Amino acid sequence: MLLSPQAERNWEGLCSVLEDVLEDQSDRQLFALELGSGTGQHVIRFAQKMPFVTWQPSDIKEESRDSIKAYIDATHAKTILQPVHLDASEPWEKWAGVPRSCCDLVVAINLLQYSSFKTAQGVFSGAGQILKLNGLLISYGAYAINGTITPSCNEQLDEEIRKMNPEWGLPDMDVLRQLAYGNGMRMERIIEMEEYYKCLIFRKI
Question: How far apart are CA 158 and CA 142, in angstroms?
């Protein structure tokens, strides 16, 4: 069971956002795909707070999938499926057999800033295929706005991420808005979170 200090800090705020945006659908069973699930700390908390959602965690790394399995076993979670290998930069047909128009929700937490633009394109292209009409794509992270990164702590974060991989870095919200539009979605809400992070809410239209 891997432990992410940031996940421990931000899970409550993320749960609140999810509970808020899904409140009007809590009377029916929903299906959600989490991209880049990481340690599994988030999906475990989400499942505990929102029992009306069945969660499909995924990650490209085997060690992350092993950690997710360990969290599922330790918490006896009944609404979390076994994690699958999923590379969001691949065409959605290769997304672990996830069918078209099957998801009410796709969640990507801290994924886009640690990814190439090809992955961002894949996330929006894939979400556009697998989301039901009115389904939601929720992306959490730090972002540039019109090519500008503020405040200085986000500039430093962007520099640190680009040192890890020059293809990574804080994505621009306006570019993401255009990607969404090109894949049948619209940016519906921007929710300010802690430490200058944001939740971007996109809806399939």
Answer: 9
